[in-house]
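User: Sequence for SsuA/THI5-like domain-containing protein below. Tokens please.
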Amino acid sequence: MKYRPARIIAGLSAMALIAAGCSLDAADSGNTVKVVVGYQSKTINTVTAGTLLRAKGFLEQRLARLTAAGGPKYQVEWQDYDTGAPITAQMVAEKIDIGSMGDYPLLINGSRTQASERSRTELVSVTGYQPKGSLNMVVVPPGSPIHELQELAGKKVSASVGSAGDGTLRQGLSRAGIDPKSGVRILNQQPQIGASALDSGQVQALSQFVAWPGLLVFQNKAQLLYDGAELNVPTFHGVVARRDYAKQHPEVLDAFLQAQLDATDFLHAKPLEAAESVAHDTGLPAEVVYLYNGPGGTTFDTPLKSQLIQAFKGDIPYLKSIGDFADLDVDKFVDDAPLRKAFSERGVDYAKAVANFGNPAPITGTDPTGNRPVTDPALAGEIWFDGQETTQPAADPTSLLHALKAARAQGRKVRAAYVPDAELGTRWFADKALWIHDGQTYLPFTTSAAAQRYLTAHPGSTQLSYDQAIAEVQP
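Assistant: Structure tokens for SsuA/THI5-like domain-containing protein:
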């Protein structure tokens, strides 16, 4: 039986509200001000407003300073969810004050919460973004005969309706000439349920947000079919706050945004330590966390940049495609005044930060192969050697293969190696990439469709495996 999106999302909301029945009210209790934060521990592009932020205690530290300065006591309650839908349901019920989620769930959040002034939310910051959209991907089982998105026609695909992964799937199918409503059968499933369905053969593909695609590929349970970067539309995750709560306790929202900036600075300064921390608290492999949270991966930057807001406005038709949602005025939903204030308090130029769409934490350093400086973020990769507290940069994919070949000869163990896709720039595992040899150059691709496009356009180039590439590369 085909799903009914609006009914499903309403059902999820109702379930979340029932589950929240035993939660404490977010109102003040005596001299203690309570703030309830909803986050998604395994959605690792929200770590600076969730998992990492909680682990480092930055918010509690900021609030403690307010108390020490003569303010009231503050109590932080963290609530962890798998997707953004239940966070939105809790915000509608006025039981979560600040939450973080992906762009498509943010659309639903803004639409659902505006019915009441007490539940109405505002988008106050970004946690991380990807300029081309590679935060969402479609995977298929290893050895699947499906190599292009068009081949999903008539197949069953697992996705979480209302999630960023679902939005990317529908956009991708539409561009491929497939009606998302009738051309495929989309099963509305939580990410972990969908992963099991893919493994058991109940579905032929799974479309999800980070870190699920990378996790399943890392575990050899899936191979990448479609990279969301092919849409070439920015995707992002952000923070929403209930306006009523922020109006009553502006100092709490300010402390939260300052703490988010603290977490962002920490992630940039100590990326491996941050990845290990997130891995410890989520159970995700640190290598998978670092794929997205490491330099050259997700752009962790808080400003509400115009490119992201324009892309956000372009996603609005998605609301109507999955159910009966109230229209959302994005310009009224977005409010960067609190973040501007936080930047000003730190002596940082917000306008300058908004204007910069580049990644503030690219891969840098010196490539020991040839002693070359790493200067081009679009080509740079890195190797994480076992037992090392820092990674080794590579100026380009070919140089990375040289370093891996030398490491094998020396018996050094590699935890993970990362390279950017030659066509789309998506950061990916070097051993999961599809490699092409063209002249003296070795090029990695995330999907077989991308590799085939290159082979077709460059006669004489050849495809080879990761191990073959390492074996063949010459000094």
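The chain is about 40% helix and 20% strand.
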